Amino acid sequence: MKKLEILKVSFILRSDKKNSGSSPVIMQLYLSGRRAYIGTGHKVNFDEWDSNFGRVKGSSKKVSTINLHLDTMKMDVLQIFHTMKANQEDITVDEIRNRLMGKDEVSKKHAITISELCELHNQQYEGLVGIGIGKITFNRYKLYKGRILDFLVYKYQVSDIQIDQIKYSFAMEYEIYLKSIVKLHQNTLVKFMQYLSRVLDYGVKYDYLVKNVLSSYKAHTKETKRNISPLKSCSELLKRKLLFLD
User: What is the number of other CB atoms lying within 10 angstroms of the CB of residue 138?
Assistant: First the structure.
């Protein structure tokens, strides 16, 4: 590598998603005429994006959280670049991307915590409230996240963990916790488990995880039997007949 070559790091939106109104934020690496792209896990509307500075416009808590994460990713990339340069290693954008994502044998995985991943997942769906999901459903997502963090305190006496520390046994212990400590009905419990799996799927989709270790985990629902009195059943049948005659 030539000494004067400089790694350029920028954040862009996927232009092929412009018609949809929003787009994933992508980190672009440029070095020696080659480019590499890394997903950030964020998705914003085109009118909220400052293309000159590669940041989200505004000063809200959500905007600040996204911009802070982008800054952190950029610093991580530059640290990897300068470390490789100091060690006189062959540097390519693909190798930098691999080290950032933990796909090399030298560096540790670039992992975020389960709390951060839940927050990124929930932020994406917050923009769909009233369009793709209801407000009640979105509020449940916040409840699901909180229950996972409660479990971490109860089981491991920690407030958060890196997502690469989540194993298959985590789901089994979490299910037992929901059933024996929180005392959830089986069908409600399944929704909490499904949320955890969806969050990990989100992590895979945006390159925070190599795979979802809970993809094969199944929590079964129970059939709910409704007790309807004969009198009420006859009354409903009579109403249907009267409607038919009208």
Answer: 17
